[in-house]
Amino acid sequence: MTEPPVTAPFVPPARVTAPPRLTERFPALFPVAVRVHRARRRWQWITGDQEWARTRERDPLAVRVEKHRSLLLRQLGESEMWLQHNKVINLRLASRRVDGLLVRPGEMFSFNKVVGSCTRRKGYVPGMRLSNGEAVPGVGGGVCQLANLLHWMFLHSPLTVVERSEHSFDPFPDKDRVLPWGVGCSIAYNYVDLVVRNDTATTFQLLVEVGDRYLEGELRADSELPHSYSVHARDEQFLQHEGRIFRRNEIWRTVIDRRTGRQLGEELLKRNCALVKYQPEGTQVVDVSD
After folding, report:
1. Name one Pfam family in it (predicted).
2. Do 150 and 75 have their domain in common?
């Protein structure tokens, strides 16, 4: 069988090949670093001149822009299932903070400002949290799934993504995956965030709910939009480099005229590359080692 071509020279991500950070070599320093990052972000919130979204509207706005739902429980292994069930509890708490929120013209949405810190005092429990590509218990774990859903809906709108951080590992196979790999979000209160800005004259509304099987969301607007959007992955590859497997792809967005259905253009949103934490099955892995 002919191997698929490698579309560009492969360079492992710097965050994977870089020497261990100071907090990795001296774990006792990690809480100090977190406090510093949080203090810096709080200062930015206090001194910045941004208008943050905080108004809610119970009744849905007139126009549906995008609708999406994601499966709450994925069969990843019996040892992780209790974390996933706890994740559902956390998602219910976080979703209540987001549901009905309006993002008006000129306003910015911050996941961390809206949801807040996920603490035991607020009812959050240990759920699935990713650490170095492994599922580990962490209070509030699993709220990233809500950020993932919101980010996917934002990509199907004219809202501008200002800040978004992704996981540096691909931890699980694609079983039950609906969205393209590489469009997820990493969240850590309050300095790793999902932030969007409304540069339009349209007011948008976020509606989210935890159902029996799915986390369900809608992005709505107060008026019809001239464009719709299609988001997809290209150049999906698994590459082996010096004994480790990496995954990479590109995320593209197509802009479509709602009235005519004609494609108006497309844009590259993101190039992804991450270390794979499982053995890919049913797909070819190309060896690109020197």
Report:
1. VanW
2. yes
% of the chain with per-residue pLDDT over 90: 72
**112 falls within a domain:** yes
The answer to whether residues 40 and 170 belong to one domain is no
Neighbours of 224 (CB within 10 A): 11
pLDDT digits (tens, 9 = 90+) for 44-67: 999 999 999 999 999 999 999 999
Evaluate whether 70 touches 178 at the Cβ level (below 8 Å). yes
CA distances to 58, 83, 225 from 201, rounded to whole Å, are 21, 42, 10
66 and 44 belong to one structural domain: no
pTM of the model: 0.92
91 and 215 Cβ atoms separated by less than 8 Å: yes
Burial class (CB in 10 A: 0-12, 13-18, 19+), 262: exposed
209 contacts: CB under 8 Å, gap ≥ 6: 95, 99, 215, 216, 217
- Name the residue range of residue 66's domain: 53-225
